[in-house]
Amino acid sequence: MRLSRRRALGGFLVAPLLPVVTRQAGAVIILDSTWQADNRKYITFANTKPFSTYVFGFAAGRFQVKTARRRGHTMRMLYRETNAAKVAANTKAIFDLHAQSVAWMEEYTGIGMPFGKMDFVLIPGFQYGGMEHIGNIFYRESSLMLEPDASENRKLGRARLIAHETAHMWFGNLVTMSWFNDVWLKEVFANFMAAKIVNPSFPNVNHDLNFLWSHLPSAYSEDRSRGSHPIQQDLDNLKNAGTLYGRIIYQKAPVVMRQLEAKLGEAAFREGLSEYLQRFAYGNATWDDLIQILDRRTTDDLATWSEAWVKRAGMPTYRTNVDWKKGGQLDVVLEATNTTEDGLHWDQETQVVILYTTDSYEIKPLSIQGKRSQLPAMASKPEPRAILPNASEMSYGYFALDQKGRSFLIDRAYQLPDPVLRATAYWSLYEEVLRGEFPPALLMNFVSVGREEDPLNQERLLSYYEELFWQYLKPVERGYYQQENSDKLWAYLESGKYQDIQSSLWSTYQQTALDPVHQRRLYRIWTGEDTIPHLTLSENRRISLATSLAIYMPDEAGTIMAREMERIENPDQRERFAFLLPALSPDFEERKKFFESLKDPANRAKEPWVGAGLRLLHHPLRTETAIAFIEPALEMMPEIQETGDIFFPRQWATATLSGHQSEEAARIVQNFMDDNPTLSYRLRNKIWMAADPLLRASKMEAVGRIQSGDRMDD
Ligand SMILES: [Zn+2]
User: Fold this and answer.
1) Is there a domain that residue 487 lies in?
2) Are 391 and 421 in contact (CB under 8 A)?
3) Which of 281, 289, 496, 510 is the most buried (most CB within 10 A)?
4) Residue 274 alpha carbon to ligand 1 centre in Å
5) pTM of the entire structure?
6) If you measure from the C-alpha of residue 86 to the centroid of ligand 1, how many angstroms do you get, rounded to a whole number?
7) What pLDDT, on a 0 to 100 scale, did the predictor assign at position 517?
């Protein structure tokens, strides 16, 4: 190493610079690294084992460095965070999580670290959570550098992200898909492995529940839309590879993979994966290659199963027909109400729960095959109150509740003793609202997290509540609930009883405080006259609070924004806030200028900032004026795809549409789609996905104050 001390402190550090020489085949080795007379540094690398070009990465910039040695691997972390206490509080966990992930993957696959070097670069405003470059994984800094009071769920999210990127060293980097139509495969493996890896580190977390919440709602959000597509998608030209990525790949595919594991059994599945990795190491393979390896280990016909689940679009929908006779005979038939475009059924295993009361129920396994699937007839003395045919974290689809089951569950779901069962009831009810079966106001009590014991369920109820509140409730309806629900959230915050979700409670409280009393309190917290109970007002929280206040209090927005700008210490955060100021402005002309500025690709370079800016423009309280930006934003989609990174077209469309719920906004989208039939199929899909909540919300009607909620006290 010839890096002088002066240069190390003041100059640029290049990520793949320190050699990590291991006996591992394929390690990244630097042969020479010299400053030349022209004041440039020349680095010569030894040949590595072969890998695909898309995982080559190079980081240059001003970074601080920490080094650690774990289980024989030296790892380095490059970062820019300036808050020394925050860095100190996070460093050990970040290294430990990487080391645990490596050890787990080595053990599971029987194959040592494929490329030896294990460094990572934390980049503020990085456009993804992480990117699995060989030897230097890139992460969004805020995903790893957590606040001191981060919730258990945030920590779990970080652990999963690290495990995901680490798992890619085997799945994706050691064995790469033959072509990008199978790009999903490396993603599903990374997610699938990540779920397995993080479990032992979080013994207090219910992992089936965690799997359910991290996959199903997100997968459905795309799969129920008109933009649904198969997991495996054709790709004619590599330049469109970016448009393949989305939640169907990241969240639906792991559910499908879990079904596959359940079909084979854990041991046979693992053997199959190990064979696949060894056979195709430092080379390419397809999904069909894997299916062939696995098919030899089961009597099931995996090829046919894979056609419906992997090679076709859409999610299954079911109706449950219940026939109970006074004598006590119960017949339950699950009827598939749709098929793939070409008539295939999505066969799967599920668990049917027959509920007599909330604490008396039976669980029966059911193999869903073809159009009608029937439980063996059973004797059932009392008449069941509700049937939940999807009580497994692997059950995938829309399982319609009947009227009776719906009204039973809506008031009592939280009384069910098993957290996965409660989760199933919650998302089934939520799905019913989205399908127009009953009004969103009926679920306003999802804010009553005090009735729910599990922190994962509590967090999900809070995010459902925010979605219902902003996306589906009409403004007049928000008025019915805003004060009471903010009172409730504040009481939870003050009680100190919900430490695991305190920061989520705070965030929901801040994001939904429409009542003036609560807004004044937020203002006092921002000025420092008041405090958040049991939570510190970190710089990030304070900036976010200032952002909300500027929207809630347009008359004081100018002062708030100027004062906050002065206070921000972190230079990257300052730059971000300065970028967002015009989008936050109470003056429409300023906001318009912000939008116009985005037509210059240079102003879209920091994509997460652009997404945040668009969300501010289209905040639900500003949709009347923001509606003018919808059509021009949609017209820019092809350019956004061409100039932006892989997730950007979807983010651009979502940030543009997610604040809207009016029929007028829905019409603009519909007209745009009608007028642009030649827009590429994938961009159309992205728009349909982003527009799905808007299209559903625009059809919902406001209802009066719903009284049933009144009896749902904590
Ligand atoms: Zn990935």
Assistant:
1) no
2) yes
3) 510
4) 19
5) 0.84
6) 26
7) 97
Query: For residue 473, is it within any domain?
Result: no
Positions of E strands within 243-325: 283-285, 317-324
Q: Report if residue 94 sits inside a domain.
A: yes
Q: Ligand 1: distance of its center to the CA of 679 in Å?
A: 28
The whole-angstrom separation of Cα 643 and Cα 697 is 31
User: Residue 654 is part of which domain span?
Assistant: 587-714
pLDDT for res 539: 94
Q: Is residue 526 part of a domain?
A: no
CA-based nearest residue to 67, from 128, 11, 119, 145: 119
168 C-alpha vs ligand 1 centroid, how far in Å?
Answer: 7
Please name the residues in contact with 380: beta carbons below 8 A apart, sequence gap of 6 or more.
Answer: 324, 328, 329, 330, 354, 356
Rounded-to-integer distance, Cα 107 and Cα 111, Å: 7
In a 10 Å sphere around its CB, with 0-12 CB exposed, 13-18 middle and 19+ buried, how is residue 342 labelled?
Answer: exposed
Between the CA of 27 and the centroid of ligand 1 the distance, in Å, is 21
User: Both 3 and 82 in a single domain?
Assistant: yes
Centroid of ligand 1 to alpha carbon of 38 (angstroms):
39
Query: Count of domains in the chain?
Result: 4
Q: Which contiguous run of DSSP H or E holds residue 245?
A: none
From 281, 315, 349, give the residue that closes a domain.
Answer: 315
Q: How far is the CA of 243 from the centre of ligand 1 (A)?
A: 15
Judgement on whether residues 162 and 178 belong to the same structural domain of the protein: no
291 and 183, same structural domain?
A: yes
What's the gap in Å between 74 CA and the centre of ligand 1? 23
The pLDDT assigned to 608 comes to: 93
CATH code assigned at 213: 1.10.390.10
> Do 127 and 182 belong to one domain?
no
Find the CATH number of the domain harbouring 420.
Answer: 2.60.40
pLDDT recorded at residue 417: 93
What is the whole-number distance in angstroms between the Cα of residue 504 and the centre of ligand 1? 26
Same-domain status, 205 and 101: no
Which residues are within 5 Å of ligand 1 (an ion), measured at CB? Answer: 187, 190
- Ligand 1 centre to CA of 165 (Å) is 6
Question: How does pLDDT run across 266-307, given as a tens digit for each residue?
Answer: 999 999 999 999 999 999 999 999 999 999 999 888 988 999
202-239 pLDDT, tens digit per residue, is: 888 888 998 899 899 999 999 999 999 999 988 888 77
